[in-house]
Amino acid sequence: MRTVHYDALVIGLGVMGSACADTLARKGLSVLGVERSPEHDGDGASFGGSRLFRAHPGKPALTAAGRAAARLWADLEHDAARPLFVPTGGVTVCADPAEFAASGSRVLTRTEMRNLLPGVRIAADEYGVLEPDAGILLAEDCVAALRARAVRSGARLQFGHTADPIDLTNTDGPVRVRIGAETVTTERLVLATGAWAAAMELDGMPELSVERAVVHWLADPVPTPAPFVIFDQDPTPFGLFPAVGGRAAKFGRFSTGVLVDPLDPATGVDPATVSDDLAQLRDRLPAVGTRPGLRSTVCRYTNTPDGALTVARPTRRVAAVCACSGIGFKFAPVVGQLVADVLTDGRTEYSSDAVTVCGPGESPATGDGLPTA
Among the listed ranges 164-168, 220-224, 268-272, 334-338, which one has the minimum average pLDDT value? Predict the structure, then answer.
């Protein structure tokens, strides 16, 4: 069996792992990235066509992280020379607009709501809060751009490969990982395995829950609002994404509450779920009708107990990314920068208020906050 050495090994190449591989490679390290799925397989939480980019009212650390992430996505978009972010704006339909007030947002008048959200049914006691700078990240394109830049920076990425169980008890020497016919040694190991992280038992790893999520695309051309819309008042809050980047309009609940075993394969879509979700959309958008063409799929969201973005450090050589699926995608470049910093420099300028770094291998020296310039 051949033994090869890399300065850094990244296991899992969804958006978080790809961001880590990209940043580590751009720091000049030799990087191997390994992903169990085929390169263009899109069944993970990092895919699904689109991801929201919006503010987090009342959470200043996440707001600062969002500003940093916006700059990093813009840099990647420039490097990739193709659109990755579509500035659609976003509207939250809610009962209390103060709850969703953020920098740059404003409460819409009834006339503005009718003009911005044609065909959408809104109750007389509901308000609309507009975030004009919000928009949609094109998920697959973002992941592909991160991977491509990592490769241009010298990283080697392997798809359709899995790593054997890893022994992390030896904290003195390099980590050894068997991958297919090779044994890989490395000074820095990043675990970004999404839902499968819930099956790991690592010091510093919070207890993770894996939630079954169902999303739907409208195959039939149905007029939808130009901004994305979040219906917070509904029994189960859900979102409606416009058709952007050649993708169909999409809708789905933000949470189903259905927990699954991370090791079980994703099952098919339950017809009853499709019927319930469609009824909820039709109540808001009557033009959908009773039998629109739909494409539905199941994926798994991995959540920390408090919804925080977390990087577990079981040893000083290892970082395990536990990003909350509900908000994590847009922060991937920030998490990638943080992980690369702590594994190479032992410190980071990125605030632990935005991303919790915990465990025996936690770096004691972290920055005072996210840069905002």
Answer: 220-224
